[in-house]
Amino acid sequence: MSDFLVSKSLANIIIASNLNITLALNEKKGGIHGKDHMQGSIEELIQLWELINLKPKTGCFTWSNQRVGCASIFARLDRFLVQSSLLDGNQIISSKILPKLSSDHHPIALVFEKEDQLGPIPFCFCPLWIERDGFMETVKQAWTQSVHGSPSYV
């Protein structure tokens, strides 16, 4: 794994890094699409530390091989991973890809904004939860509980 910066304060973790791998198919355009041998380790770290892979508000790719035509490759190699507990407060945390200067990588910025009580944070399902011991039992137990009040059904 490449060098990365970890800031840990009061159990809030922010990782800003050029991981040098893509974590999803839509994070790469052009070139060979294959699973990197480090991807499983990164996904395990994301699950273990309850991290959220912040999708950038602006742009999609952070790196390019700076070629044109069918030889061009674009990928999202740089990212922020933030602990889910950071999203529980009254701040909106997002990332954005900034204009490229002289590097083949775009710089990225982590943005903190004050939330104006927009409601609850939407639930995000992590596919790695399925592999945790007791996951299916917990889901079955939750679905069998009776609901009181006026739930909304879609």
Topology, please?
Layout: E1 4-9, E2 12-18, E3 28-29, H1 39-48, E4 51-53, E5 63-64, E6 74-75, E7 78-83, E8 91-97, E9 108-114, H2 135-144
Antiparallel strand pairs: 1-2, 2-7, 3-6, 4-7, 5-6, 8-9
Describe the structure in your own words:
- This protein has 154 residues and is α+β, with helices and mostly antiparallel strands.
- It is globular, with a radius of gyration of 19 Å.
**What portion of residues is helical?**
10-25%
Supply the helix-strand structural class: alpha+beta
Please name the CATH architecture: 4-Layer Sandwich
Total domains: 1
What's the average pLDDT? 83
Q: Please state the overall shape, judged from the principal axes of the Cα atoms.
A: globular
CATH class: Alpha Beta
Number of helices: 2
Which consecutive residue ranges, at least 5 long each, have pLDDT under 50? none
The strand order across the widest sheet is 1-2-7-4
CATH homologous superfamily grouping: Endonuclease/exonuclease/phosphatase
Approximate strand percentage: 25-35%
* Rg, Å, rounded: 19 Å
What does the main sheet amount to? 4 strands, antiparallel
| Elements, N to C (H/E) | EEEHEEEEEEH
**Total count of strands:** 9
Cα(first) to Cα(last) distance is 43 Å
CATH topology: Deoxyribonuclease I, Chain A
Short description:
The chain is α+β, with helices and mostly antiparallel strands and 154 residues long. The protein has a single domain (4-118), classed as Deoxyribonuclease I, Chain A (4-Layer Sandwich), CATH 3.60.10. The protein has helices spanning 39-48, 135-144, and strands at residues 4-9, 12-18, 28-29, 51-53, 63-64, 74-75, 78-83, 91-97, 108-114.
